[in-house]
Amino acid sequence: MVCDAAWDIASAHPGSPVVYASHDGEMARSFDLWLELLKSHTVSPTSFGLSVHNATAGQWSILRRDMSEQTALAVCADGVETALAEAASLLEEGCGSVLVLAADDPLPEGYAVSATRAPFAYALAMVLTKGTRYSLTLSASDDMPSEAGMLPEAYWSGLEWVRFLLNGSRECRRVYRNREWLWQPASCRLKISAMSAPSTTWYRRY
User: Fold this and answer.
1) What CA–CA distance (Å, rounded) separates 10 from 190?
2) What integer pLDDT is reported at residue 94 of this predicted model?
3) Which residues of the chain are under the pLDDT cut of 70?
4) What's the longest Cα–Cα distance across the chain?
5) Which of 69, 92, 172, 185 is deepest in the core (most CB within 10 A)?
């Protein structure tokens, strides 16, 4: 799914460093491995090797034969915002563009585990360059109810970012525990190639 979302835009920006962010990571694969181990007392070496958080980024590098710098982030609810902040730091270091990948594959409902799950698996690919199209501001927030720190958070900020673009809103506020991110048109240009989910792909270019 990540390859479907990012392949074309990566081809248009060869050599861009990659920032990969995921909340779920390889959690679903890890649960499958645990069940396999309980049933057969052994696991597939290949599957085990792909159960690490940066497996997707590593596979991407191999498939693309791309030795560019890569960063794999295990993120909280504000995953896309965190990835873009990391990408912005690379731009400040002199990179001309940064490929940002955000993907989540929620734990299947068949596992009776108390866990917040994204509505569906998705992958989002963006190229970040310096510009004047969008701004992203981080500030401390006092709006959080005192008990909110104990509540599960909606971590699929990639989906909310696409909603913001498609709605043409003037701003998008996202509060995560004690911090608030504010999206507004101005200051940061994003080129979005595609966002993929089962049976659906949304395209938006800038």
Assistant:
1) 14
2) 93
3) 51, 143-153, 186-206
4) 56
5) 172
